[in-house]
Amino acid sequence: MKERGLLIVLSGPSGVGKGTVRKALFSQEDIELHYSISATTRSPREGEVNGVDYFFKSHEEFEHMIEHKKLLEWAEYVGNYYGTPIDYVEQSLSEGRDVFLEIEVQGALQVKEAFPEGLFIFLAPPSLTELKSRIIGRGTESEDLINNRMKVAKEEIEMMDAYDYVVENDQVDRACDRIKAIVTAEHCRRDRVARRYKRMLEVE
Ligand SMILES: Nc1nc2c(ncn2[C@@H]2O[C@H](COP(=O)(O)OP(=O)(O)O)[C@@H](O)[C@H]2O)c(=O)[nH]1
Ligand SMILES: Nc1ncnc2c1ncn2[C@@H]1O[C@H](COP(=O)(O)OP(=O)(O)O)[C@@H](O)[C@H]1O
């Protein structure tokens, strides 16, 4: 039987660098992860492509997905819905592929309920001042939205204890290396456990 893949959840406040670290991680050849594309009701930003960055949905379409249990988790975040389509995750894991979710904190906590065996990583900013300057530097949000995101960020940082690991995003390549090391260690741990049970069953 094919072993199930690993579910990796990267979470953390808006502007900490989740998207940047994820893209860097996916550009590396020594780790193979499968990105779960989320659905959202937020409007596309310049350059974002439907079905690549997100599945962009109307409120009605999103609520239809909720009603028909098409989402593994969903959350309302600063006025928009975001959610993880369940079929892609289930199918990839059952075929032995490692799935990577990049989602906010409320959603990550819902995934933890459904998949306690997942690997939950919180990406943390070096400081709140640096977080704010990254959000401002990205230039995608109005001042009101930036203040909202900072307010939510403080609440999210309080939840970091619920995660298996906290990775500081001081430099993108260092954060990436830390995440790779965590994923590799988790694979080794699971292989060791699987081998131990296999041996136990052979002896029985
Ligand atoms: N719960 C949940 N959060 C998501 C999902 N997809 C993206 N998010 C999070 O929603 C928040 C806002 O995303 P977005 O508007 O793209 O802004 P950005 O990530 O700050 O650039 C971020 O924290 C994302 O990680 C999802 O499927 N579920
Ligand atoms: N380690 C880092 N050092 C400095 N700037 C960073 C770092 N990681 C990300 N950034 C910048 O911070 C901004 C927010 O990053 P982004 O990946 O959009 O965050 P998130 O997906 O968590 O909202 C971007 O302008 C990005 O270039």
From TrEMBL:
Organism classification: Bacteria, Bacillati, Bacillota, Bacilli, Bacillales
A Pfam short name: Guanylate_kin
Subcellular location: Cytoplasm
Record InterPro entries: GK/Ca_channel_bsu, Guanylate_kin-like_dom, Guanylate_kinase, Guanylate_kinase_CS, P-loop_NTPase
Segments forming domain Guanylate kinase-like: 5-184
This protein's encoding gene: gmk
Record field: catalytic activity: GMP + ATP = GDP + ADP
Full protein name: Guanylate kinase
Top-rank taxon, per record: Bacteria
Key words of the record: ATP-binding, Cytoplasm, Kinase, Nucleotide-binding, Transferase
Organism for this UniProt entry: Priestia iocasae
Enzyme class, spelled out: transferase
Keyword Nucleotide-binding: yes
Stated family: Belongs to the guanylate kinase family.
PROSITE patterns per the UniProt record, alphabetical: GUANYLATE_KINASE_1, GUANYLATE_KINASE_2
Function as written in the Swiss-Prot or TrEMBL entry: Essential for recycling GMP and indirectly, cGMP.
Statement: the UniProt record of this protein carries the keyword Ribonucleoprotein: no
